[in-house]
């Protein structure tokens, strides 16, 4: 099944005054590249999203944008979610977490609540030492990792300064 973003926009999204929540149940569809999605939604509809929940535990690294996973690579387009305050990535492959937290791929200036699997967070942040993911974590006020844990790490607290 192929989903045409222009059809979705013209028949569904245009009738919504503001999209508050977007749930991505990414299963058995043809995957578009990041550039295809950006071109389809050139009106920046995703910029209005304030809460995002993604469910997909399958790696998308081979089909998303065919770019190197080098953290220092400068990407042509950084996707910005200026209204996104809540992001739930508990049930996703860690590649999604990396794509959302890496500031060279995604800019999340208002992110206040983050739901993640702690083990995946450790991988993506390289035990809270990865500079590329620090910026998108600095304003988080609520961190949900699925269980209570006492993290007594200076690196952790420099990542999540407002916790």
Can you offer a commentary on this structure?
It is a single chain. With 163 residues, the chain is α/β, with parallel strands linked by helices. The chain has one domain (5-159). Helix content is 25%, strand content 14%. It has 6 helices and 7 strands, in the order H-E-H-E-E-E-H-E-E-H-H-E-H. The chain has helices spanning 5-11, 34-40, 94-101, 118-125, 131-134, 154-159; strands at residues 21-25, 51-55, 79-80, 86-88, 106-107, 113-115, 142-144. The strands form 2 sheets. The chain has a 5-stranded parallel sheet, with no helix packed on it. Strands 3-5 form a two-stranded parallel sheet. Helix 2 (34-40) links the parallel strand 1 (21-25) and strand 2. Helix 3 (94-101) packs across helix 4 (118-125). The longest helix is centred in the middle third of the chain and has 8 residues, at 94-101. It is elongated. Mean pLDDT is 74; it is low at 25-29, 62-69 and 71-75.
